[in-house]
Design brief:
19% strand, 346 residues, binds guanosine-5'-monophosphate
Length: 346
């Protein structure tokens, strides 16, 4: 047994200290980033915020709206090849810059990936997503995928430590997804005791990735635009959102009406709900590691996006960053014992 003594931090443990700034207005801030990816050598320009590859978030409808604002969607893996065909035949051509096709690491997953790419070689991004990115099987699947698709941008995860970020980048990933246990509908930390506070995970993983020319996505745990700003401040190249984008018109899941109020269902991809839907129930050897919740209906996602982007531009003006790219350099975190004033929060 071994204990690491230094305290690891989450978003709620810090604030960003304001700094002298020459920026006169939020409108002077650019949130656009340009990346050249490590292994595919492909380039990308956009606003590096992503919808998570969850049923209720990573939908085709979400992608169409987010792409209008240059935001990205990791499309969930449960669409059929036929549904992909219908979507791509009607969506704007440049949608392929803002979507990834997600896959697990099973034989069937690889087969489906091949089928979709055969019909749609224009797709550019693959998201290989497993709850535990530390397994050898996952690394082998990544290596095989890189071999099969040398020019595609590969996102792979999830991990939370620098040495595994390096291994995934050296095994063919362009972007590594970082986060174990911070998600809004995740119960991994409760069921297993495993996890890593997200802010520290970002700081350590970004350092490892940037050292060898790769990028990271901070995945999970953002509950406010301020958390997204802290993730970018800590060094995340992209920030992935589940819960913050749930409950909208474009989110998946039925609209539920209860006592005259509208809700939408939102659930973790390892929840009993997801396993009932896709795997015929929770297998006896495992436990669900996700929650199912009903989120009050939030309307069209455009309003939420504008709120997030407005908040992020404001963070940049507070610290004098004219471009999102400069935010990490301009960030000094202060450790705190309080966050916002809750007096009117009911
Ligand atoms: P959120 O933005 O809602 O805080 O976090 C979204 C992330 O939670 C997803 O991108 C994914 O990494 C993670 N997640 C989604 N479903 C589950 C689940 O059922 N269990 C766990 N442990 N994590 C999940």
């Amino acid at each position: 047994m071994h204990i690491e003594q230094d305290i690891k931090l989450g978003f709620k443990d810090v604030m960003i200290r304001p700094k002298r700034s020459t920026l006169k207005s939020r409108s002077q801030v650019s949130l656009e980033r340009n990346f050249t990816f490590l292994n595919s050598t492909a380039t990308w320009t956009g606003v590096p915020i992503m919808a998570a590859n969850m049923d209720a978030v990573g939908t085709f409808e979400m992608a169409l709206t987010l792409a209008q604002h240059q935001l990205f969607t990791a499309i969930h893996k449960h669409y059929t090849a036929a549904q992909w065909r219908t979507f791509l035949n009607t969506a704007p051509k440049d949608i392929t810059d803002y979507i990834a096709i997600s896959t697990g690491t099973g034989k069937e997953d690889a087969k489906k990936l091949k089928t979709v790419f055969k019909s749609h070689p224009e797709l550019k991004f693959i998201c290989i997503d497993v709850a535990n990115g530390y397994s050898e099987h996952f690394v082998e699947f990544l290596q095989q995928t890189r071999k099969a698709y040398p020019n595609k941008v590969i996102i792979a995860g999830n991990v939370v430590t620098g040495e595994m970020v390096e291994q995934l980048l050296l095994s063919g990933a362009d972007i590594v997804k970082v986060g174990i246990g911070p998600g809004s509908v995740c119960t991994t930390r409760i069921k297993t005791g495993v996890g890593y506070p997200q802010l520290s995970a970002i700081i350590e993983c970004a350092d490892a990735a940037h050292g060898i020319g790769g990028q990271i996505i901070s995945d999970g745990g953002c509950t406010t635009p301020g958390d997204i700003a802290k993730a970018f401040g800590a060094g995340a190249d992209f920030v992935m959102l589940g819960g913050m984008l749930s409950g909208h018109t474009e989110s998946g899941g039925e609209l539920i009406i209860k006592n005259g109020e509208q809700y939408k269902q939102f659930y973790g991809m390892s929840s009993a709900t997801a396993m009932d839907k896709y795997a015929g129930g929770v297998a006896e050897y495992r436990a669900s590691e996700g929650k199912t919740v009903e989120v009050p209906y939030k309307g069209d996602v455009k309003e939420t996006i504008l709120d997030i982007l407005g908040g992020l531009r404001s963070t940049c003006t507070y610290v004098g960053a004219a471009r999102l790219k400069e935010l990490t350099k301009r960030t000094t975190f202060i450790r705190v014992a309080e966050q916002e004033n809750q007096v009117y929060n009911g």
